[in-house]
Amino acid sequence: MTMYLCPLCQSPLQREAKMARCQHNHCFDYAKEGYLNLLPVNKKKSADPGDNKQMMQARRDFLNAGHYQVLAEQLSDICRRTLPQASQLLDIGCGEGYYTQYLSQAFPEGSQSYGLDISKSAIKFAARRAKQTQFCVASAYDLPFAANSFDLVCRIYAPSQASELARVIKPQGYLLTVSPGAEHLFQLKQQIYQQAEMHDESAASIDGFTLQHQQQLKHRLHLTQSQDISNLLEMTPFAWKLSPEQKAGIAQQPLTLDIAFNIELHQKS
């Protein structure tokens, strides 16, 4: 288990039964679900950082219903074409592990997959879902991994730091990113804002990386179940914008809306 680094002293961690220990005797316990918590108290900005349990449950149920499966399949296809050989994968901001599971299955036998999120609630869900993946609670701005560890890092909506990504990705390795496309959830935004604006889908410039591929993925959803609409509202930033009464009002009527994703594949320079 030498890929993990101690978050306190950056020494390699070695697994000992139900814990991981570094040479300076810093110890971190494995949870019963199998994940490792590598977010020390002194590095937390709140008692329970990241998305809460309610948001995670909403996202899990919405994704399990297959509404974003088109994105998961497209990302898996890109991974298969980009790295057909056994590889090391990291999914940062992995949430409840829906995409992590898809991506890990896209690589051939012998590959290893890791998932990371700052939300403990999210990682608990993820560890139960994708049992062949190693998960940890940690910050994407302070990745607990050795330099040049991964052939591909996936970042779906998650904030991160370019220098940290460049540090953990192998020479000529890849960064696969997803951000909202111009028309993503636009019909829903029209119900919420007086003046709805489209997302900027221009290609990102990431220090240390060269853009190799960019594409727009668009799909139309027809949501007829109020619970699906409620889950969508809870898993997006709209959850903070709307009152419970407004959420209930939107969820009462069937909803047809566009989902759009900006997918980019960058290679480490």
Please describe what this structure looks like.
It is a single chain. The chain has helices spanning 53-64, 69-82, 98-106, 120-129, 162-168, 186-192, 226-235, 238-241, 244-251, and strands spanning 14-16, 19-21, 27-29, 36-37, 88-92, 112-117, 134-137, 150-156, 169-180, 209-223, 255-268. It has 2 domains: 1-30, no CATH class; 42-268, 3-Layer(aba) Sandwich (Rossmann fold). The protein has 9 helices and 11 strands. The chain has an 8-stranded mixed sheet with strand order 4-7-6-5-8-9-11-10, with helices on both faces. It has 269 residues and is an alpha/beta fold. Helix 5 (162-168) links the parallel strand 8 (150-156) and strand 9 (169-180). The longest helix has 14 residues, at 69-82. GO terms for molecular function: 23S rRNA (guanine(745)-N(1))-methyltransferase activity; metal ion binding. InterPro entries: 23S_rRNA_MeTrnsfrase_RlmA (IPR052939), Methyltranfer_dom (IPR025714), RlmA_N (IPR048647), rRNA_m1G-MeTrfase_A_prd (IPR016718), SAM-dependent_MTases_sf (IPR029063). Residues 87-204 form the Methyltransferase domain. Zn(2+) binds at residues 6, 9, 22, 26.
Q: What's a quick, concise take on this entry?
A:
This protein has 269 residues and is α/β, with parallel strands linked by helices. It has helices at 53-64, 69-82, 98-106, 120-129, 162-168, 186-192, 226-235, 238-241, 244-251, and strands at residues 14-16, 19-21, 27-29, 36-37, 88-92, 112-117, 134-137, 150-156, 169-180, 209-223, 255-268.
CATH topology term of the largest domain: Rossmann fold
Distance between the termini: 27 Å
Q: Main sheet: which strands, in order across?
A: 4-7-6-5-8-9-11-10
Examine the secondary-structure arrangement and name the CATH architecture of the largest domain. Answer: 3-Layer(aba) Sandwich
Major sheet summary line: 8 strands, mixed
The domain tally reads 2
Give the low-confidence spans: none
Binding site for S-adenosyl-L-methionine: 68, 96-97, 184
Domain Methyltransferase: 87-204
GO molecular function, one term: 23S rRNA (guanine(745)-N(1))-methyltransferase activity
Domain 23S rRNA (guanine(745)-N(1))-methyltransferase N-terminal: 4-46
